[in-house]
Amino acid sequence: MPLRVFVADSDEVIQQVLTGLIASQPGWQPCGAAIPSDTFVQVGQLKPDVAILDIALLRTQGWSLARQISHGYPTLKFIVTGGLDPMSVGRDVFNAGGLGYVLKANATSDLIAAVRAVQDGRSFFTPRIAESLLQDYLKSEQEGAVKPSLSERERVSLKFLAREAATTLSNEAVRPRRGTIRPGVKYALVALVLVVSAGLGWMNYHDVLEEKFPWIDTILMRPKLKAMPSEVYKGNPETKVWIDTRTGLYYCPGASEYGKTTRGRFAKQRNAQLDEFEPANRKGCD
Question: Which of 40, 58, 111, 122 has the least CB density, counted as fewest CB within 10 Å?
C-alpha cells in the first residue's frame, strides 16, 4: 500500500515542487495538494499518512490551524516547512504537534529524509532543537509542571523525540571520529536520553522499537499498552496478521506484503491493535 502524503503550501510553485519530490519516491503517493483555506477540511477527507504543512499557514491567528489539526486528527503525523531559522520556531512547531521542521531552502535534500524519519517513529529536528526540547521537558517534570495526564498527541510527540535522540546517539557511537569528544558531553547526552526515556515510562503506553536499535528496549519501560483510537471496523481479533515493525502497519492474510517485509512478525489482530499497529488498508482484517 503506498504511503499517502498530503502537501499544503501558501506558495503554489513551492507546493508543486514539494509534491513532485514526494511523487518521485517509489511507493509514495501525493494524495492531494490543498488550497490553503481548505487545509483542515481536506486533511479530514483524504486521511493522509503524513502531511507537509507550510508554517505560514499554521502560524496565522496564533497557530489556530495547527491546534485544529492536532486536536481534530490526533494520529496524523505532520512536518512543517518554512524559511525561518529552525532554532527560532522549533519549539513552536513541536508544541503545535509537528514532528519535524524542514527549511524550504533545503527541501530537496531534507524533505524525503524527514518523511522517512516520522514513518520510522522518529522526529526530524536539528540535534540542538531536540536537546533543547528534551531539556525543557525534564525541567518541567522536575518542577512538577508536567501535566499528570498527557494527551495521546503529546505522548506520541515525546516518544518520537526520545527515539530521535536515541538514534542520534546510536549513530554517533559507530561513526568514525576525526577528533576527540569531551567525555562530559557524551555522558550528558547519554544521561539525557536515559532520564527522558524513563520519564516516559509512567505514561500509559509501550512501544516496540526497530530491530536495528535493540538496545533501546532496555531503556524504554513497557507497562500495559493504551489502545489507539479504534478503527471503524476492527475485524476478527483472532485473525493472524503480519506486522511490519519498520512502518508500524499490519497486513491481512492474502495481502502481497503478508509475511514478506524485511522486518516483521506474526500476531493475532487483537494484539497488533493493542500494540498500536494500524491496518495497512485502514480497516480490520476479517
Answer: 40
Q: Using CA atoms, how far apart are residues 102 and 88, in angstroms rounded to an integer?
A: 13
120 and 7 fall within a common domain: yes
Closest CA to 43 of 106, 82, 92, 97: 97
Considering the domain architecture, whether residues 65 and 152 belong to the same structural domain is answered as no
Report the C-alpha gap between 193 and 45 in whole angstroms.
Answer: 38
The overall average pLDDT reported for the chain is 75
Tell me how long the chain is: 286
For residue 14, count other CB atoms closer than 10 A to its CB.
Answer: 16
CA–CA separation, 111 and 105 (whole Å): 10
Model-wide pTM > 0.70: no
Reduced to 3 states, what is the DSSP secondary structure of residue 125?
coil
On the question of pLDDT at 235 being above 70, the answer is yes
Contact 118, 77 (CB under 8 A): yes
Domain boundary among 95, 125, 155: 125
